[in-house]
Amino acid sequence: xxxxxxxxxxxxxxxxxxxxxxxxxxxxxxxxxxxxxxxxxxxxxxxxxxxxxxxxxxxxxxxxxxxxxxxxxxxxxxxxxxxxxxxxxxxxxxxxxxxxxxxxxxxxxxxxxxxxxxxxxxxxxxxxxxxxxxxxxxxxxxxxxxxxxxxxxxxxxxxxxxxxxxxxxxxxxxxxxxxxxxxxxxxxxxxxxxxxxxxxxxxxxxxxxxxxxxxxxxxxxxxxxxxxxxxxxxxxxxxxxxxxxxxxxxxxxxxxxxxxxxxxxxxxxxxxxxxxxxxxxxxxxxxxxxxxxxxxxxxxxxxxxxxxxxxxx
Amino acid sequence: xxxxxxxxxxxxxxxxxxxxxxxxxxxxxxxxxxxxxxxxxxxxxxxxxxxxxxxxxxxxxxxxxxxxxxxxxxxxxxxxxxxxxxxxxxxxxxxxxxxxxxxxxxxxxxxxxxxxxxxxxxxxxxxxxxxxxxxxxxxxxxxxxxxxxxxxxxxxxxxxxxxxxxxxxxxxxxxxxxxxxxxxxxxxxxxxxxxxxxxxxxxxxxxxxxxxxxxxxxxxxxxxxxxxxxxxxxxxxxxxxxxxxxxxxxxxxxxxxxxxxxxxxxxxxxxxxxxxxxxxxxxxxxxxxxxxxxxxxxxxxxxxxxxxxxxxxxxxxxxxxxxxxxxxxxxxxxxxxxxxxxxxxxxxxxxxxxxxxxxxxxxxxxxxxxxxxxxxxxxxxxxxxxxxxxxxxxxxxxxxxxxxxxxxxxxxxxxxxxxxxxxxxxxxxxxxxxxxxxxxxxxxxxxxxxxxxxxxxxxxxxxxxxxxxxxxxxxxxxxxxxxxxxxxxxxxxxxxxxxxxxxxxxxxxxxxxxxxxx
Lengths: 313, 518
Known about the structure:
Largest interface: A-B, 34 and 44 residues
Shape of chain B: globular
Oligomer: heterodimer
Helix content of chain B: 40-55%
CATH superfamily of the largest domain in chain A: MetI-like
Number of strands of chain B: 17
Number of domains of chain A: 2
Largest sheet of chain A: none
Structural class of chain A: mainly alpha
CATH architecture of the largest domain in chain A: Orthogonal Bundle
Number of helices of chain A: 16
Number of helices of chain B: 22
């Protein structure tokens, strides 16, 4: 794109586009105030419990010692390491298993002949997105619980009842399945929109050339929405360290903590249980998360650009 | 034209950015001293700003509540109440950082410990003598000790309304009569009751919720009454108790035999209550349990549930429910059982409000005052004689419905309690529900001789304990539910983790240090 144009100096660019500058300022101010200024808070991770309540920010910083203790705890505590592992496992499972589903659903929905039926299907698959996790876990428990219809049926057929919510081995799979059920419809919106905007002339031409439905999907639909897929995948990878706090928090219990506790729920527990004294450790965990996510998103974007020419920037 | 437009836009943006950056810094002119002003005119009462815990109602309703108005009449102070959100930590920290002008803050014990630790609360030791003689007279030394750090007092303790024995196992008495079962006294009797009930119902007979790692009625048989108690002169956490393994083994044997609800680890309280109530309904499907280890206050919910099963709940339910306070290992053992107490709230004054502290103390003092001439505390808690209550022949307070209902919120507005009178008044509330009162009376028989307190209910702020409490409790709870299922095989490993990694040993040392020197 820009390679074809002649290189312009920064000064020349400013001169050329100066009437546009005022329009950029609000966005820059927003980013500065709400994204860049708060970053100074990262310093808390390197400080030994500054007392922000009694003293103003600068004095509190001056009064407390510099320390790497928070990072020492973060990287040596076997418990935290196992929570990081849980987070990564759940997240990777979600991406590998759940990422392709909305794309398939979008293709299927747009291929439906009856417009009315297609709208109905969309409405039904979107609906779970608007339920809160607490409600969904409640519904799940009453259907799949030890004394619910599914287990009753399984016992009646000579099987054994399974306490799905209380089995450490089931936990991650349940997280993935429930998350898929809840979000698949909503995630497909972007793809449906992308498919709708494909030029119908392409399909007509393909039909005249004798291409069947599958061939059309494979050779026209998928390549046309590939940029959307790539962008969505890169964004999704950026959230790798976030395995879905709200969901896991609603599902977690005493029996499944070892396979289910993720960084999000752990930090939440930490913040609650130890109050102010662990802002340092929470910040260190957050910083670690941020750095990993940044590396992931940069490399995903780099590879995508190299391989397909598409990227977020 | 375009130039003018962009100039206007530019100006607008600059203005917003200046506003955005300037609104954070207006601390400068506020007072910043710990000096209490004794030279004030108490008859010239200012409006007080009071920070309250979350009430679940909107703040207009909190301010216009009839109890708030009664307090205004009694004390002569106009009060402006503000409440914290349910998730209070961040908001409270922001309030303290910005030095927001609250004369009084009603805090939880944990919030109080944190703020004392950060040097945010006013030392009111000397000011109490000047402004709060009624508080000093009606709050016990035991209670003052809870808010004392290094010999100085930083808050006003609000002792629990009554020291209740409140963790029964409720049994379905209909079912017991039907199966010809006696009320169990020993563990053996209890196992037998569960066995018979389970056989009859076809479902596990005992249920409870996911927050019940220690069932005091059962653990009492093994000499474990509560979380922190003394064993041979040493205070220990229940998981370190000498016979904790026996308790777990017994529970595991019940679980293995199929007498305990397989979903206790994921049950919320509503689910467990529902399962118990369903045991009264032969036609109900799903789980049903004839025995329920719960809190005494769940009796209200059980009563409501039973009324939907066609049982008349307007009077006591002697024929439907029976309460087990504790079980014994052998029939001859002496009975001991956990008795709850403690301090739900502690009211404090932030240090930067020292200048007006006299008024705040004067206001709280007049709320606690309770003399024949000025029964302020009584009016606040249970209202007026013959309007809200009457005295019975034996001198107890009987609620008069429906007027008494307006006193339901009264305890929310308390800032410290009159310990000499509160339990008597509070019982009027229990008397409102006949079955609850019956349950309470059954549980409280000889309470003074059988009750064992949780030692940490009476500690002053302890740093290590406060910092590690949640971790200790969460893990002990997790492990209990795991061992309930798998047996006590890994107990030693769990105990090592609890004491090492989760610092239970440090907390134990800290508590013992306080306990021996108190």
